[in-house]
Request: fold
Amino acid sequence: MEYSEVIQLLKSKYNSKNVKGLTKAGINPQNALGIRIPELRKLAKEIGKNHKLALKLWDSKIHEARILASMIDDPEQVSERQMEVWTKDFNSWDLCDQVCMNLYKYTDFAWDKAKEWTERKEEFVKRAGFALMATLAVGNKDIKNNKYLQYTKVIKQGSTDDRNFVKKAVNWAIRQIGKRNIGLNKEMIKLAKEIQTLDSKAAKWIAKDAIKELQSKKIQARLKKKK
Reply:
């Protein structure tokens, strides 16, 4: 598919009801068409990997076109500069998370950027760091525990950030890492308990919620089976 064809197709799927519903979900409705993720995944499958088209779709500034771009881009062709440019454009949690899940986690820069971005000031750039940690914790079966434990210091530092989209991503990172195996589960519970002692409402919420899930019977039973 050519760029103009894809844009025309996306615009034809505009759904005003869905766009109105984005705000309720905490999603920025700016330049949005209200197209659901399953539809975008279906279209991405039809298009296939196309780095040049992905770059053009991102430059369109259309919300769903940018999510689609993350689905069709080739991680082997993604540069560090591209990741920086795209990440600075993040203006919504869903765009941030989709790009991390669909594309960033497969690049050569993922592990370093996860740490680097958590030390930035911009809300969605900082979120991207923790969101990337969370997505890197899914799959990647052969990755050693130490790769994840390198993030404990920045996770603790980020836990006092009371901005909604940051604190939720910090919580997400702790929970996802802690669900990988029993060893990381113990380490993340330990970390969460340290965070719980900090003089911060955000930190206490992050810790309480993470501990509740990581110590739950469901998670503990699943991790014991994986031993």
About this structure: The two ends are 47 Å apart (CA to CA). The first helix runs from residue 3 to 12. The CA atoms of residues 143 and 149 lie 11 Å apart. The chain has two domains: 1-73, 92-227.
